[in-house]
Structure formats: structure tokens, C-alpha cells
Write a structure and sequence with these properties.
Blueprint: H1 3-6, H2 9-19, E1 29-34, E2 40-52, E3 56-65, E4 73-75, E5 81-84, H3 86-92
Length: about 100
């Protein structure tokens, strides 16, 4: 995940563990992800809770890329570029 979103991931998890709401499971949610080359892309994530007597509770996330005709530049709150989609690479001559 892009760094500007990743830094808040633990905050999201803490919120979940505090209130225990189950609304994060079994619902596809839009997210930005990073590929191996470092480009961001729009995707859907589905998180499932997998209880196991042997290993306790596990969480499994499945990501499905969603292709759009748009390109993206993701910035942090300070305005620094965090990541961008592959189309921006050729358009602006940048590399991740």
C-alpha cells in the first residue's frame, strides 16, 4: 500500500480492536495498492475472518485490481508525492 496510507494502517487496526465492529469483513472496499515496480493502482480489497481452533483467529485479505481510464498521483498530507500510476510515468517521464 502507498506509504501515506500505510502509516495509518495500525491506527485502523487499533480502532477495530477497540470497538470490535465487524463491518470491515466480507465487504469489498476500494483501496490504492502498489505493484512490484512501485506504481499505485486502484483495487478492491475483501477481508475475511478465518477462525481456527488450532491457530486462533486469522485475517485474509484478497485484492482485485480494478482497471480505470484514470491515472493517479497520491500525496501525503505534507504534499510530497507518495506514489503514482503507471500512466503518469510516461506522461511526466518519472519513475517510481
Amino acid at each position: 500500500m502507498p506509504g501515506s496510507i500505510g502509516v495509518r494502517h495500525n491506527e485502523f487496526l487499533e480502532k477495530f480492536y477497540k470497538n470490535g465492529r465487524q463491518r470491515v469483513f466480507n465487504v469489498e472496499r476500494p483501496v490504492f495498492s502498489l505493484n512490484k515496480q512501485g506504481h499505485c493502482f486502484y483495487a478492491k480489497v475483501l477481508v475475511k475472518q478465518m477462525p481456527s481452533l488450532k491457530e486462533g483467529v486469522q485475517y485474509v485479505g484478497m485484492i482485485r485490481p480494478t482497471y480505470t481510464e484514470f491515472d493517479y498521483i497520491i500525496t501525503g498530507l505534507n504534499g510530497n508525492v507518495d506514489c503514482f500510476s503507471k500512466g503518469i510515468t510516461s506522461l511526466l517521464g518519472l519513475s517510481p
